Amino acid sequence: MLRFKTGLTMAMAAVIVATSLASAGSAAAQTAATTAATTTAKPKRALTPGQIAARERMKKCAAEWKATKAAGKVEKGMKWPQYWSACNKRLKAAAT
């Protein structure tokens, strides 16, 4: 590890330099980033019917999961992903 005459390591010196540069140019950098983000942002697309249905199923399954977990009726070892998979299949089958 290299040390300067003052006892600072190169890593410590780099941090000091980086923070001083960041604080000096942070306002200009934030303004530039905000301007770039607003000019290049793509308009949001509307959700497809399938995406809307998937989000509704996820909300229903999440509500069921919370109620089942609060009641202590969750199968041993079952986590949210397994519950979501089973619940999603069940709700999809009920919709058709």
Order of helices and strands: HHH
Helix content: over 70%
Largest sheet: none
Structural class: mainly alpha
Could you say which overall geometry the principal axes of the C-alpha atoms support?
flat
Word description of this protein:
Helices cover 73% and strands 0% of the residues. By secondary structure, the chain is mainly alpha-helical. It has two domains: 1-41, no CATH class; 49-95. Helix 2 crosses helix 3. It starts with 9 loop residues before the first helix and ends with a helix. The model has no long low-confidence stretch (mean pLDDT 79).
Topology:
Elements: H1 10-40, H2 49-71, H3 80-95
Helix pairs in contact: 2-3
Question: What does this entry show, briefly?
Answer:
By secondary structure, this protein is mainly α. It is 73% helix and 0% strand.
What tags apply to this protein structure?
single chain, 96 residues, mainly alpha, 2 domains, 0% strand, flat
